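User: quick one, fold this
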Amino acid sequence: MSEASLFVIEDLRVAIGDKEIVKGVNLTIRSGEKHALMGPNGSGKSTLANAIAGHPAYRITGGRILLGGEDITAMAPDEKARKGMFLAFQYPVAVPGVSVANFLRSAVKARFGAEAGGKDFRRVLKDQMRLLEVDDSFAARYLNEGFSGGEKKRLEILQLAMLQPRIALLDETDSGLDIDALKIVSEGINRSCGADTGVLLVTHYQRLLNYVRPHHVHVFQGGQIVRSGGPELAIELDEKGYEKLEGAAA
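Assistant:
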């Protein structure tokens, strides 16, 4: 593996119960690269993202995951997060009793150390909230409680900005966003994911990729990557759909 290969998945297989969902995935993401993983409902895209992050409902039955050359396959989710992995959920959950500011402070301390939770934290948080057009009052609100779909997705990108991950897994971040919110969220992704960060965007639609331009696009069907290409592949998918895409598995 070259030094530039930040994140590597080798022959990864994932099961839910006795059913295999992910069936031997290979993928390499280099520093600064954005990869889009596109596929129909039920193809296993979200299962792949959640399994990589260590969700206990998904059992890795084969293969391995490397971050910066280190095998992180069997690590617990919190260990993976400390190593620099970030997952933006398709359906972010509410956490009553925990404010947005306290949640983010704890997460930043766990990622960077206790000294990261001081005055600089408050300044950076306020700056990032302003950039994402999140009202200051949200810092005191309970995490995702009573938030609209768009507000939850902006909060996911706020977490991304604060945690500065090495690899960002974004699971259908565009879901439920109107065009204005999509632009703001996309700008947040582009701003937060620079030359040292790898990105895996899981999405159904090409519209997100108009704003977050991928270096590589992969078609995911039946638990496998069946075709890969450049940004033009997303346009072809948008025009033809998955069933008529030339070279994709039946």
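User: anything notable?
Assistant: Residues 65 and 96 are 33 Å apart (CA to CA).
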